[in-house]
Design a protein that fits this description.
mainly alpha, two-stranded parallel ribbon, binds adenosine-5'-triphosphate, binds magnesium ion, ATP binding, ligase, Rossmann-like_a/b/a_fold, ATP-binding, nucleotide-binding
Length: 333
């Protein structure tokens, strides 16, 4: 079967609803038809300087959330990036075919380095997209299910694969991005023009999958909207309401049209928010319960990750060997 690969950074103790709706729902849907690889990208997370204990804990809890959200480790390969050294080995090779200016144009780097300032910005944040390209290309990946914010990195990955193949001979499969429609960019509830983000300064805008239900209910009820008082779908003029409608539609399965009809009339923001809060709790409560169970047995979780790493390494080592040979590295002993 053709392959898919995707990952999340263990940069927080919990995923948020954007990670879940923008990426994970598609992972789970696609794992039936694809040979799926889901990676906890701890090397990417190192770019924001976590405490070692924090990174260890978050790496396990992120893996647990993959499984709690429906990834089946019997069907899909679930592994940790740093367990497969081929990722950083291939990243070096890709660094050497990436233009400096090309990397400097990446908006994620510009956003994150802008926020962190010169002092807080390390070179790893800059070379992040080439490591991500390595993550993908090592598995001969056909499709990469991600949110809208990763579109530019996917384009770079395709460019690098094409460039490598043209220069050194056919080595990498050129992957396609799979970006969902309405849920590709779930916005912050406090700042509905910015995406929900694990590393956002203002966590009040994020619906975290592992928060207590009452915390999320409160966040939904205090979501920033507008004073126009009519529920309409207008992402430009009414980004807060549009975001709530998208979340509702994704979780309930109702179309946005149906919802706009349902909440027609004056003063329906409260009703919309109440229903969204209810829908969020319905997914996150069982999700959280399952994560608690999985985390309660870290030995079993580590066993799953070790088996995943072994399977991932088989594929990754073969691709790396091809790439090393293509660029002219001498065969090792
Ligand atoms: P960080 O702030 O640490 O970068 P993040 O919230 O952006 O965290 P990532 O681990 O970088 O999450 O991304 C994991 C996956 O979730 C990616 O596929 C990404 O495109 C997707 N994603 C992230 N935020 C959103 C969002 N707000 N809406 C939809 N998809 C999202
Ligand atoms: Mg991110």
């Amino acid at each position: 079967a053709p392959r898919i690969l995707s990952g999340m950074q263990p940069t927080h103790d919990s995923l948020h609803l954007g990670n879940y709706l923008g990426a994970q729902v598609n992972w789970v849907r696609m794992q039936a038809d694809f040979d799926a690889f889901f990676c906890v990208v701890d090397q990417h997370a190192l770019t924001v300087g976590p405490e070692p204990e924090e990174l260890r804990r978050r790496t396990r809890v992120t893996a647990a959330q993959y499984i709690a959200g429906g990834v089946d480790p019997e069907k899909s390969t679930v592994f940790v990036q740093s367990h497969v050294p081929e990722h950083s080995q291939l990243a070096w090779v890709l660094n050497c075919i990436t233009g400096y200016g090309e990397a400097a144009r990446m908006t994620q780097f510009k956003d994150k380095s802008g926020k962190r300032g010169a002092e807080g910005t390390n070179v790893g944040l800059f070379t992040y997209p080439m490591l991500m390209a390595a993550d993908i290309l090592l598995y001969d990946t056909s499709v990469v299910p991600v949110g809208e914010d990763q579109r530019q990195h996917l384009e770079l990955t395709r460019d690098l694969a094409g460039r490598f193949n043209a220069r050194y001979g056919d080595t990498f499969r050129i992957p396609e991005a799979h970006i969902p429609g309405e849920t590709a960019k779930i916005m912050s509830l406090q700042e509905p023009t910015a995406k929900m983000s694990k590393s956002a300064d203002n966590q009040a805008g994020n619906l975290m999958m592992l928060d207590e239900p009452k915390v999320n209910t409160k966040k939904v009820k205090s979501a920033v909207t507008d004073t126009d008082n009519a529920v309409r779908f207008d992402a430009e003029a009414k980004p807060g309401i549009a975001n709530l409608l998208r979340i509702h539609a994704a979780l309930s399965g109702d179309s946005i049209e149906t919802l706009v009809e349902r909440y027609a009339g004056e003063n329906k923001y409260g009703a919309l928010k109440g229903d969204v809060a209810e829908l969020v709790i319905q997914v996150q409560a069982p999700f959280k319960a399952r994560v608690d169970e999985l985390i309660g047995d870290p030995a079993e979780l580590d066993r799953v990750l070790a088996a995943g790493a072994e399977r991932a390494r088989e594929v990754a080592a073969a691709t790396l060997a091809r790439a090393y040979d293509a660029v002219g590295f001498l065969p090792g002993a």
